[in-house]
Amino acid sequence: MNQKQHKIFLLFLIFFVIGCMFTVSYANAETVKLVWDANTETDLAGYNVFQTTEAGVYDKTSPVGTIPCGPNDSPCCTYTTIDLPDNTYFWVVTAFDNDNNESDYSNEVTKRIDTTPPDVPKTLLIEAIELAIQSLERFKSYFSMLEIQ
């Protein structure tokens, strides 16, 4: 293998390794866990969780989750969303009792979901080429020392 072929091979090898190192898969969704303080009413039956992408706009007939919660239940003041795509989300919670009376909405909480990765750096390959040339020079020096001895 002549010197030019050797340099091309090493450059290919370096680019291949760098490509493998920076190959990452990204999820396009996220999970959010909501937590609130428990109500103390003895006839509490549970909670309804409402989710929207527009602040303050909720429909009491369409909760995204209903969490039953009776006196013998373990703490039931959490709700976890699954696989939310990129957007801004808003949530509120209501409590309801055994007679189906429902409270007003809790305070509203919000979270922006952004799973979009940043752009790939554009200058890494320039540095990799310089590194490859330096490596080739080191190899050349090393082999030159071997030939002398």
Structural features, described:
With 149 residues, the chain is of the alpha+beta class. The chain has a domain at 33-113: Immunoglobulins (Immunoglobulin-like, Sandwich). The chain has two helices and six strands. The strands form two sheets. Strands 3-2-5-6 form a four-stranded antiparallel beta sheet, with no helix packed on it. Helix 1 packs across helix 2. The two termini are 22 Å apart.
Features:
149 residues; two-stranded antiparallel ribbon; four-stranded antiparallel sheet
Short recap of the structure:
This protein is of the alpha+beta class and 149 residues long. It contains two helices and six strands. It has a domain of 81 residues: Immunoglobulin-like (Sandwich).
* Secondary-structure content class: alpha+beta
Unreliable runs, pLDDT <50, ≥5 residues?
A: 15-27
**What is the CATH architecture term of the domain at 33-113?**
Sandwich
Strand residues, percent: 15-25%
Task: Supply the CATH superfamily name of the domain at 33-113.
Answer: Immunoglobulins
Radius of gyration: 30 Å
CATH secondary-structure class of the domain at 33-113: Mainly Beta
Structure summary, number of beta strands:
6
User: Which percent bin holds the helix content?
Assistant: 25-40%
Strand order of the largest sheet: 3-2-5-6
Mean pLDDT: 78
Principal-axis shape: rod-shaped
